[in-house]
Amino acid sequence: MNPDRARARASDGAQVREARLHVEIARLKDELAAARAKIADLESRADVDPLLDIRNRRGFERELKRSLAYMQRYGATAALVYIDLDGFKAVNDRHGHTAGDALLKAVAGELTAHVRASDVVARLGGDEFGVLMWNVAVPQATVRAQELEQRIAGVCVAHGTAQLSVGASAGVAGLRADLDTASVIDAADKAMYARKQQRRER
Predict the structure, then answer these.
(1) Which of 49, 127, 178, 189 is catalytic?
(2) Where in the sequence is the domain holding 19, given as residue range(s)?
């Protein structure tokens, strides 16, 4: 074979292999990007309550941890409102879990509609909610928490011939840079139980 022709064929073969390699690299990059997007989506879903479409406890604790880290670095004021529904068990026992779920959705919607975009609403347990409020001191957050109590008390869900409603007790704890997530949640939880007792004694 003519040496020039052999070199040309070798060059053509190298170009073909290089082109195939570029195609394969592009395909692998696309697959990697798709895998990363899927992982991000799964991680995001893992932080969301599937029934209420708000953060679950895991997602809320992650947000709270980030908030405490932000406070340590930059300084800010924030408060955690811990809300427990009063009378929810009776709704479930009398009308069933479907009715209870509908009431939880309505409460979650009411909370989300009446906090600021910067605030974070989450379901912390069966009938317990948390609201992370930014740029408020405890006295201001307490006033807003009591407003949320009233909002929840005004929620009414039709179920057959029944009109379902619940009350709410909200406790407030201020965030401090020297606290961890468990300490903040525990303080707000205790404040909620104190508020519940206060409401019972009226």
Answers:
(1) 127
(2) 1-46
